[in-house]
Amino acid sequence: MAEPLLGAHMSIAGGVYNAFLHGKSVGCSTIQIFVKSNNQWRAKPLSDEEVEKYHQLQKETGIHPVVAHDSYLINAASQDKALFAKSREALKIELERCQTLKIPHLVMHPGSPLGAGEKVGLATIARAINEVFDELEDKGTKIALEATAGQGSHLGYKFEHLADIIGQVKQQNRMAVCLDTCHVFAAGYDIRTAEGYKNVMAEYDRIVGLKHLAAIHFNDSKKGLGSRVDRHEHIGKGELGKEAFGFFLNDSRLAGIPKILETPKGPDYAEDKENLKVLRSLIKK
Ligand code: ZN
Ligand code: MN
Ligand code: MN
After folding, report:
1. CB burial of residue 264 (10 Å; 0-12, 13-18, 19+)
2. Are 71 and 50 in contact (CB under 8 A)?
3. From ligand 1's centre to the CA of 285, what distance in Å?
């Protein structure tokens, strides 16, 4: 098996292209970025210089592919008209920025309908995606729905939710999925043993389809199985344990899929380096 695609979420402070330099410094072969500031609605358009420098640095560092993650402000399941409209618009802008940067996947949190119920929430998310796709021609970037821990009323904690949304999207060839080890475990999918991993992946494949899988977030979990609490922990330091990551890393069906850390880190990236070292040690030669 070829060296797996391993990396971490990297900062874009000072320019989107800076993420490649951070990624290179810790030995990432793939990275995840926000395509704009993740806690503000507004974004300055990408300048031609920034885009050019981004492509140049991607070529120089050889980091490929890049995965984009949507802003935490977006809630496409919102029943509040103003927040829904803002979310849909932001999603569209982010997808457009991904197209400009030639990023193949934009990971999206499905959203939270609060008290409106799951059925209404799932339909609202699909409506937002349909409207965005109607307004933006297909240039190859897909939306990858992220499996969630199911904290609060967040949808996506069952594989059925992801399949339901994709089923309601008209341009299904523009849809993909992102799994997150912490989220699926907190949602109740036990991937701690070889047997458990096999069953969960078979269930995922049956309900959503392995062919839709675009990326995997590699996070251990501070909270237990089925806790529905989303708290990331360093690899091997949480309730999930490091063996689970070995199952993903040594699964030949997932060889071409980027596996990305979203664990806490300081400015020197020491934690990323350590987590990547632990992950590489789990790969069977
Ligand atoms: Zn996420
Ligand atoms: Mn994640
Ligand atoms: Mn999370």
Report:
1. exposed
2. no
3. 31
Helix, strand, coil % (nearest 5) of the chain? 45, 15, 45
- In terms of residues, how long is the chain? 285
Compute, in angstroms, the gap from residue 109 CA to the centroid of ligand 1: 6
User: How are beta strands 220-221 and 30-34 bridged, if at all?
Assistant: unpaired
Read off the pLDDT of residues 17-28 as tens digits, 9 standing for 90 and up: 999 999 999 999
Measured in Å, residue 48 CA sits from the centre of ligand 2 at: 30
Domain boundaries defined on the chain: 6-179+198-218+242-281
Question: In terms of CATH, what superfamily is 6-179+198-218+242-281?
Answer: Divalent-metal-dependent TIM barrel enzymes (3.20.20.150)
pLDDT digits (tens, 9 = 90+) for 141-158: 999 999 999 999 999 999
Lookup: tokens for 9: 């979420």
pTM: 0.97
CB 260 within 8 A of CB 32: yes
Closest CA to 278 of 45, 6, 1, 2: 6
Displacement of CA 271 from its chain's centroid (Å): 20
Q: What's the DSSP call for residue 27? A: T
Q: Looking only at Cα atoms, what is the longest distance across the chain?
A: 53
For 220, the token pair is 């251990």
